[in-house]
Write a structure and sequence with these properties.
Blueprint: H1 10-29, H2 33-47, E1 69-72, E2 77-82, H3 94-106, E3 110-113, H4 137-155, E4 159-163, H5 166-178, E5 198-200, E6 202-205, E7 209-212, H6 221-229, E8 232-235, E9 242-248, E10 251-257, H7 267-270, E11 283-290, E12 293-294, E13 298-302, E14 307-310, E15 313-316
Parallel strand pairs: 1-6, 2-3, 3-4, 4-5, 7-8, 8-10
Antiparallel strand pairs: 2-11, 6-7, 9-10, 11-12, 11-13, 13-14, 14-15
Helix pairs in contact: 1-2, 3-4
């Protein structure tokens, strides 16, 4: 359009985004942030170049080149985030069935398993109470492969991320403590057994949405996580399934707890919670992006063993 600045040189555009970020680039060029995201995505796909942005506080990139941080760009589409599956052999929960269905029907751009896919019951720091039966490590690994395999098929071409949770870390931690000489041997790390999933500590979408297993704790965790991060934060760990908006001079961002894909009162949790009531909810999060911008996050909530609710509808799964 007449009067708007243009950048015909691709190198200039890349340098601008890397130097002043997406928002300021959009202002400088008189275009929308969505347009910047779309051009950035086209360039990255075509060239293989990763166009990162500066940290708004320190002027440096966030977690520079850290292998535990993975970046994704989603201009338009859905990202599904499930967490705290604690998969056990022979157990297929309502939330898991719903997650598979939503993968198939919403055709997400990315799927994130946000920690604690693996439970690690037999290598838990919690001692057995009453000599209860706990599944073996190999049994749990096979259960995780089965359930994640169902998600992989249903999600089609979606990117697949697995951000590590504290239960997932039990697998390698136990070996590191008991047999440190086996470090770096293939099979010692949990992700060695799941090559179809990208393993990380956190996934950052469009430089503005941080997905990681845990950040702040407590009943106000969603509020405090987004407050301290300065970005929308999508966490699991606490199983509470909720969305908390936070607004300041920079606009509105969100703290999201993705709940649990397990059943809150299932055998995985019964003994160490001593069957006390827990403020947990079974379900997962649906993130929708429009022109690079995250819309208000939504949750899918389990109503009973056969149904979930989403956008005012009751859905059989």
């Amino acid at each position: 359009m007449p009067g708007q600045p243009r950048l015909s040189d691709e190198a200039e555009f890349i340098e601008l985004v890397r130097t002043i970020g997406v928002s300021e680039t959009a202002k400088r060029l008189g275009i929308t942030k969505g347009s910047v995201f779309e051009r950035r995505e086209r360039i990255e796909k075509r060239t293989g170049i990763s166009i990162t942005v500066p940290d708004p506080i320190r002027g440096t990139r966030i977690a520079v080149n850290h292998p535990g941080k993975l970046d994704a760009i989603v201009s338009d589409g859905v990202v599904l985030v499930g967490s705290d599956c604690h998969y056990w052999p022979g157990v297929v929960t309502t939330a898991h069935r719903a997650f598979v269905r939503f993968c198939r029907e919403l055709k997400p751009k990315a799927v994130v398993m946000n920690g604690d896919v693996f439970d690690g019951a037999s290598i838990s720091r919690h001692p057995p109470i009453g000599w209860e039966n706990r599944p073996s490590v190999v049994g749990e690994i096979e259960a995780c492969k089965d359930r994640l395999g169902e998600i992989t098929v249903a999600a089609g071409k979606a990117l697949r991320f697995w951000s590590c949770g504290n239960h997932d870390a039990r697998f390698s931690t136990r070996l590191a403590l008991q047999a440190p000489e086996y470090a770096k041997v293939h099979g010692v790390a949990l992700n060695d057994h799941f090559p179809d999933w990208q393993s990380c500590w956190m996934v950052v979408i469009n430089d503005e949405v941080v997905i990681k297993h845990r950040h702040k704790n407590g009943v106000h965790s969603t509020h405090n996580s987004t407050l301290w991060a300065g970005k929308t934060t999508i966490c699991g760990h606490l199983h509470s399934l909720k969305v908390t908006p936070f607004t300041d001079y920079n606009g509105t961002r969100f703290g999201v707890d993705t709940g649990t894909l397990a059943e809150p009162y299932s055998e995985q949790f019964a003994n160490y919670t001593e069957l006390n009531p827990v403020n947990w909810r079974s379900g997962f999060a649906v993130l929708t992006f429009h022109k690079g911008r995250l819309l208000w996050p939504e949750v899918v909530h389990v109503l009973d063993e056969n149904t979930v609710e989403f956008r005012g509808a009751v859905i059989n799964v």
